[in-house]
Amino acid sequence: MARTTVDDAVEVLTGLRVAALTGAGVSTDSGIPDYRGPDSPPRNPMTYQQFVGDEEFRRHYWARNHVGWTHVNRSVPNAGHRALVRLEERGVLTGIITQNVDLLHEDAGSRNVIDLHGRYDRVICLSCGRVISRTHLAERLDALNPGFLESVGDVADIEIAPDADAVIESTAHFRPAPCEFCGGVLKPEIVYFGENVPRERVDRAYAMVDDADALLVAGSSLTVMSGLRFVRRVSDAGKPVVIVNRGITRGDRYATVKIDAGTTDVLAELADRLG
Ligand SMILES: [Zn+2]
């Protein structure tokens, strides 16, 4: 049975070099909802196969994304993100592997960050592989769909998902933009369900956890294997795993300490007491 308090976490982590694995729970206090949290509505995540295989699906996806991404773009880091910056500056934290695509760790000032599931501000062409900025794509989508954003109304009124996917109606006439170089299909540079994290990125993440003495998981229910495998790796090496998350996680059985709480306050307290 894992220990459960911040005191326990401080005792376990003191003097160790720690890698962090973060998920959606870290960004909820920045206004980005966690769709896997205990109070979240059920939601069917989009799959990679749906996106590449269905033109109508893509049309609706891009319409929603065009509304949702500006919300993510306006979000700002919270005290939890800033606590991880302090721990890195002090040499306690060696780096962050994040499942979030919102770039709030980078915005806060964290230097060594692996964006495991990609980043919302880039778009990739599935045919020629060119990467363009989401800001540039927004200008093209606005030109193709004059009046669309105005017709949708205030972004605060619609459901915003962590991948900048906002649920709205009447997107049937939205015109997605093809790649301007080759005409191919554009896709956010985000890892979707049914898609693998690029091998090179996984290897860098393994190297980060192998180099550390312990793993701190914050705000992830570890539902997908892409995150859980790092917890197993650290546990198998006999190193401590500290999990801070509201609700149960798939990694709880590997945890040395499991704190059932929101991440913002706990990370701030850890930053005050470690290093
Ligand atoms: Zn292209």
From TrEMBL:
<feature type="binding site">
    <location>
        <position position="263"/>
    </location>
    <ligand>
        <name>NAD(+)</name>
    </ligand>
</feature>
<feature type="binding site">
    <location>
        <position position="179"/>
    </location>
    <ligand>
        <name>Zn(2+)</name>
    </ligand>
</feature>
<feature type="active site" description="Proton acceptor">
    <location>
        <position position="117"/>
    </location>
</feature>
<comment type="function">
    <text>NAD-dependent protein deacetylase which modulates the activities of several enzymes which are inactive in their acetylated form.</text>
</comment>
<feature type="binding site">
    <location>
        <begin position="245"/>
        <end position="247"/>
    </location>
    <ligand>
        <name>NAD(+)</name>
    </ligand>
</feature>
<dbReference type="InterPro" id="IPR026590">
    <property type="entry name" value="Ssirtuin_cat_dom"/>
</dbReference>
<dbReference type="InterPro" id="IPR029035">
    <property type="entry name" value="DHS-like_NAD/FAD-binding_dom"/>
</dbReference>
<keyword id="KW-0862">Zinc</keyword>
<feature type="binding site">
    <location>
        <begin position="219"/>
        <end position="221"/>
    </location>
    <ligand>
        <name>NAD(+)</name>
    </ligand>
</feature>
<dbReference type="InterPro" id="IPR026587">
    <property type="entry name" value="Sirtuin_class_II"/>
</dbReference>
<dbReference type="Pfam" id="PF02146">
    <property type="entry name" value="SIR2"/>
</dbReference>
<dbReference type="GO" id="GO:0008270">
    <property type="term" value="F:zinc ion binding"/>
</dbReference>
<feature type="binding site">
    <location>
        <begin position="99"/>
        <end position="102"/>
    </location>
    <ligand>
        <name>NAD(+)</name>
    </ligand>
</feature>
<dbReference type="GO" id="GO:0017136">
    <property type="term" value="F:histone deacetylase activity, NAD-dependent"/>
</dbReference>
<dbReference type="InterPro" id="IPR050134">
    <property type="entry name" value="NAD-dep_sirtuin_deacylases"/>
</dbReference>
<protein>
    <recommendedName>
        <fullName>NAD-dependent protein deacetylase</fullName>
        <ecNumber>2.3.1.286</ecNumber>
    </recommendedName>
</protein>
<feature type="binding site">
    <location>
        <position position="125"/>
    </location>
    <ligand>
        <name>Zn(2+)</name>
    </ligand>
</feature>
<feature type="domain" description="Deacetylase sirtuin-type">
    <location>
        <begin position="1"/>
        <end position="275"/>
    </location>
</feature>
<keyword id="KW-0808">Transferase</keyword>
<keyword id="KW-0520">NAD</keyword>
<feature type="binding site">
    <location>
        <position position="182"/>
    </location>
    <ligand>
        <name>Zn(2+)</name>
    </ligand>
</feature>
<dbReference type="InterPro" id="IPR003000">
    <property type="entry name" value="Sirtuin"/>
</dbReference>
<feature type="binding site">
    <location>
        <begin position="23"/>
        <end position="43"/>
    </location>
    <ligand>
        <name>NAD(+)</name>
    </ligand>
</feature>
<keyword id="KW-0963">Cytoplasm</keyword>
<dbReference type="GO" id="GO:0005737">
    <property type="term" value="C:cytoplasm"/>
</dbReference>
<dbReference type="InterPro" id="IPR026591">
    <property type="entry name" value="Sirtuin_cat_small_dom_sf"/>
</dbReference>
<feature type="binding site">
    <location>
        <position position="128"/>
    </location>
    <ligand>
        <name>Zn(2+)</name>
    </ligand>
</feature>
<dbReference type="GO" id="GO:0070403">
    <property type="term" value="F:NAD+ binding"/>
</dbReference>
<comment type="similarity">
    <text>Belongs to the sirtuin family. Class II subfamily.</text>
</comment>
<keyword id="KW-0479">Metal-binding</keyword>
